[in-house]
Design a protein that fits this description.
The complex is a heterodimer.
Chain A (H helix, E strand, L loop, with lengths): L1 H8 L11 E12 L2 E9 L12 E8 L2 H12 L2 E3 L5 E4 L1 H5 L3 H9 L8 E5 L4 H5 L10 H10 L1 H4 L7 H9 L6 E10 L2 E13 L2 E6 L1 H11 L6 E7 L4 E19 L2 E18 L7 H30 L6 H8 L1 H7 L3 H7 E13 L12
Parallel strand pairs in A: 1-4, 1-5, 5-6, 6-7, 12-13
Antiparallel strand pairs in A: 1-2, 2-3, 7-8, 8-9, 10-11, 11-12
Helix pairs in contact in A: 4-8, 9-10, 11-12
Chain B lengths: L23 H11 L6 E7 L7 E7 L5 H14 L10 H9 L5 E4 L2 H10 L2 E5 L5 E4 L29 H11 L5 E8 L5 E8 L5 H12 L9 H8 L11 E3 L2 H9 L3 E5 L5 E4 L10 H5 L2 H30 L7 H11 L6 H21 L5 H18 L5 H14 L8 H33 L1 E2 L2 E2 L45
Antiparallel strand pairs in B: 1-2, 2-4, 3-5, 4-5, 6-7, 7-9, 8-10, 9-10, 11-12
The chains are: A alpha/beta, B alpha+beta.
């Protein structure tokens, strides 16, 4: 009796053969004529053993709801799509602009879809044209390409890393606004690449603006913990040398204070870097030039940080930096008072950055390339 | 004996009532009648040179006795000896004490003992005017020499192994434990085979209740023949239905000596090199004698590998079935894709496929064990090429299942004595195919409960109760093998006298 109820009531009777379902690797959501268009990339069920035998197929179907579209896909694909291993969902800009909440509901609610899937917003093109890229070459799997890009986000720092769980939490939360990476197609020499770069800024569940990849680094420095990244110092010394600094670690401290004239947020950043490349003849490791380089860079980072905050404050008024979180932690009483009106506060926060750069090393060379006389 | 009423089974008992006469010819005829149509029995008659009254007959079986010894030390002295008249009152006694050169002489008038003696390879000396005979030990059987056991190889350690002679085996044990406390108790089991069984233990280390229990169970055996110690094992073991052994067996005298020193009891059986040790605990499956001869770190690593191999060999097919059919979301995407592609076009469900391959592997293994060596290579070719490669290419089975089966099979060889893993494996797969990972966990729990509930001669099989708290003291020789200088006590639960060493290191 006990065994019987254990088996029947635990919903564990779910034997299914793997080849009866096709694995979804990427999905795109567009909207046309008031209907959602769901485009999915799936692994083609062709027999094979080697990695190179993996081929993909793309199907597209519309529906009043996404689930309807997903169910209609079965009649096209012939088999049931298996969503647990979906790696990326791309939403088109119009879907995001009119409010993305209805579009992500099914992905969060269904038991098979995962909340660890990466979220992307397609820039200026249909979301499905990103997924359609897998048709250009037999061996191309868009889902894996996008997944790889996300894995390397920590190194490039040109776009945020957002999965569905974080995205949805940010949308619902009132102390931070949501953001998502932008994805685009770029054609060069007859070959089209999928390029992830820049940040889409949301206010509530609506897309309100974008940050380009230059603005993304300071944004990421404020919003999350940045470990890697690159700063380029231009025009150092008399030979106008460009120096590339690789970021190793950033210690940040954000201090919120309420004063009579308004709200102040002071950000202190201690960036540990190393000289990674000296593309020029100046010996920047020399004390004088190095001091000049550091001072110039500290100033530049300060400006970049303050500018991006200003831009988001004035143009989008969306707290993608999570300033609300900082206030909530550092001054909970005030946060309680503010309550719903947090947006008006974000707009009025006076942000000031202070940047300190340490150069810890110079790679394996201590001098720039010398030219014989 | 209860069965004595049935002369069909207990054939020698019917001679109990026959008494020997004092006439030599009559006695010879009586014995000849018993051995009708058995032409291996030799009746050698001879007389004394100096005394015509003395007429003898030696009865023996050719090829079971030491011929030269018989001729030189029995026949020759009797023929040559000078018998004085007054000694004739008890000539048999004179012969026994003053004539024959032999270590083992037994004087008896029982026909049953005479028959048994002849059949066992002794020489029976009949004398006229006497209703008693001498049974003289002249046994010499052809036995295999002492070789390294094929089934238990070692890199380091003694190369001696038991052979089929119980005397040789006892001498091998004796040589290792020079102690008067090492006891050997003989029993004869098997109404027709009369196989000699020897119970061996060290007085003062082995627990008396265990020794008594062994004796009791052995006495209860009532069977016509014992040809191998496996008969005894099955007849006296606890948990007769369990696939796990509760009595160990080995062919190596050094292992027996080690077990005796830990307080275990050994049962030797004439005619087989496999000696039994008991009580047998689950963790003995994972211990080898080499563990104790090699460096303790190496031994501990090897022992852990054996535990892991047991888990792999029982669980991998079940986990594969559970993951593939129930919990696909737990598999990394890339792996899922390649398994999914490999499964395309395979006609059988994964469970059936897995079970088929498990059985196929067992078939191959069994074929390899019994097959004569010259044909052996054919098995591996058929097995590896036809069943492995061709079956995958023909899409009868999928490649991952072949890998799973191979892994399972290889891991199985780490614990060659653990034959029950096949049963466990199949049960695990069946459970996993019904309930997925959930079912697998159920079956593991079931196995755990089953093992925990077992006992071998009163000792808990998994050492789950009775050793007290799980202190390092109690775990020195379980999952790892502690260095010898740390193992100052014997295993707590089996031995009586716990102190093993007295050094202060």
């Amino acid at each position: 009796m006990l065994c019987f109820s254990l088996i029947t009531n635990s919903a564990c009777w779910n034997y299914r053969e793997m080849e009866d379902a096709t694995i979804v690797t990427a999905a795109a959501v567009d909207k046309a004529n008031g209907k959602y268009i769901l485009t999915v990339e799936m692994i083609k069920p062709s027999p094979g053993f080697k990695e190179s035998d993996v081929q993909t197929v793309v199907f597209s179907e519309d529906g009043r709801t996404l689930f309807e579209a997903a169910r209609k896909l079965i009649k096209r694909a012939g088999r049931k799509p298996y969503w647990s291993h979906n790696m990326a969902i791309v939403f088109s800009k119009p879907v995001a602009e009119e409010g993305i909440a209805p579009a992500i509901d099914w992905f969060r609610r269904d038991s098979e879809t995962r909340s660890t899937v990466w979220v992307f917003i397609s820039k200026d093109i249909d979301a499905k044209s990103i997924v359609m890229q897998s048709l250009t070459s037999a061996r191309r799997i868009v889902g894996i390409e996008l997944n790889d890009a996300m894995k390397n986000q920590q190194i490039s720092m040109r776009f945020p890393k957002v999965d569905l769980r974080k995205f949805r939490t940010s949308i619902s939360s009132n102390n931070i606004s949501a953001s998502a990476p932008l994805v685009d197609l770029e054609s060069k020499q007859g070959k089209t690449d999928i390029v992830v770069s820049g940040t889409a800024v949301f206010k509530g569940d609506k897309l309100v603006g974008e940050l380009n990849e230059i603005e993304t680094l300071p944004y990421l420095m404020l919003e999350e913990k940045v470990k890697k990244g690159v700063i380029i110092a231009e025009d150092v010394g008399e030979h106008h040398t460009n120096v590339t600094l690789e970021i190793f670690n950033i210690k940040k401290q954000l201090t919120f204070s309420k004063e009579q004239e308004g709200y102040n947020l002071r950000g202190y950043f201690n960036i540990t870097t190393a000289i990674e490349e000296i593309s020029g003849l100046d010996d920047v490791i020399d004390d004088k030039l190095r001091a000049e380089l550091i001072q110039k860079q500290e100033q530049e980072m300060k400006v970049r940080l303050e500018e991006v905050v200003k831009k988001v404050q004035t143009q989008y008024n969306a707290d993608v930096f999570g300033f609300g979180r900082i206030i909530e932690v550092q001054n909970p009483k005030l946060w309680k008072l503010i309550g719903e009106k947090s947006e008006s506060i974000f707009e009025n926060i006076n942000f000031q950055a202070e940047v300190k750069i340490d150069i810890k090393g110079s790679g394996r060379q201590s001098k720039p390339v010398k030219i014989g006389e | 004996m209860e069965g004595a009423k049935n002369p069909q089974v207990f054939d020698t008992d019917c001679y109990n009532n026959i008494k020997l006469s004092t006439v030599l010819e009559e006695n010879i005829n009586t014995i000849k009648q018993i051995f009708t149509s058995d032409e291996t029995i030799i009746f050698r008659k001879f007389d004394s040179m100096n005394n015509d009254r003395i007429k003898c007959c030696a009865i023996y079986i050719d090829a079971m006795i030491h011929k030269e010894l018989m001729e030189e030390h029995i026949i020759k002295p009797i023929i040559l000896s000078n018998f004085t008249e007054d000694s004739c009152s008890d000539i048999l006694k004179v012969i026994e004490h003053k004539v024959i050169f032999s270590g083992g002489i037994n004087r008896t008038g029982s026909l049953r003992e005479i028959i048994d003696g002849i059949l066992y390879g002794n020489t029976v000396l009949l004398l006229n005017e006497s209703d008693e005979v001498l049974i003289i030990n002249t046994i010499e059987w052809k036995t295999r020499s002492i070789e390294e056991p094929v089934s238990e190889n070692v890199v380091r350690g003694p190369r001696e192994g038991f052979n089929e002679s119980i005397e040789t085996n006892i001498s091998l044990i004796r040589r290792r434990i020079i102690s008067p406390n090492l006891k050997f108790v003989f029993k004869k089991i098997g109404v027709r085979t009369k196989t000699r069984i020897c119970i061996c233990y060290i007085n003062g280390i082995a627990q008396e209740p265990i020794v008594k229990e062994v004796m009791k169970r052995l006495d209860e055996i009532n069977i016509d023949g014992i040809l191998e110690s496996g008969y005894i094992e099955e007849l006296i073991r606890d948990e007769p239905l369990s696939p796990f052994r509760t009595i160990g067996s080995t062919e190596r005298p050094d292992i027996i000596a080690a077990k005796l020193l830990e307080g275990r009891v050994a049962v030797l059986c004439d005619g087989t090199p496999e000696a039994l040790t008991l009580p047998f605990l689950f963790l003995e499956y994972f211990q080898t004698n080499e563990d104790y001869y090699n460096n303790y770190i190496l031994s501990s690593v090897n022992r852990l590998l054996r535990y892991i191999a047991f888990i792999i060999t029982t669980s991998v097919p079940a986990l594969y079935v559970a993951l593939i059919n129930f919990n696909q979301e737990l598999i990394p995407t890339q792996l899922l894709i390649s398994i999914s592609l490999a499964r395309q076009g395979v006609p059988f469900p994964t469970v059936l496929e897995t079970l088929l391959m498990i059985v196929t592997f067992e078939i191959l293994r069994e074929a390899g064990t019994r097959i004569p060596k010259p044909i052996g290579s054919a098995v591996s070719i058929v097995g590896a090429l036809v069943l492995g490669d061709a079956a995958v290419n023909a899409r009868i089975i999928s490649a991952p299942v072949v890998i799973v089966t191979a892994l399972t099979g290889i891991s199985d060889f780490l614990n060659p004595k653990l034959l029950s893993s096949f049963v466990v494996r199949v049960i695990f797969v069946l459970f996993a195919s019904i309930l997925g990972l959930y079912g697998y966990m159920f079956s593991v729990m079931g196995l755990g409960l089953f093992l925990m509930g077992m006992r071998s001669f009163g000792v808990p099989y998994m050492l789950n109760i009775g050793i007290g708290p799980l202190t390092p003291e109690n775990l020195k020789d379980t999952a790892v093998r502690a260095p010898w200088w740390l193992m100052k006590t014997r295993p707590r639960i089996i031995a009586k006298n716990l102190k093993r060493q007295n050094n202060n290191r």
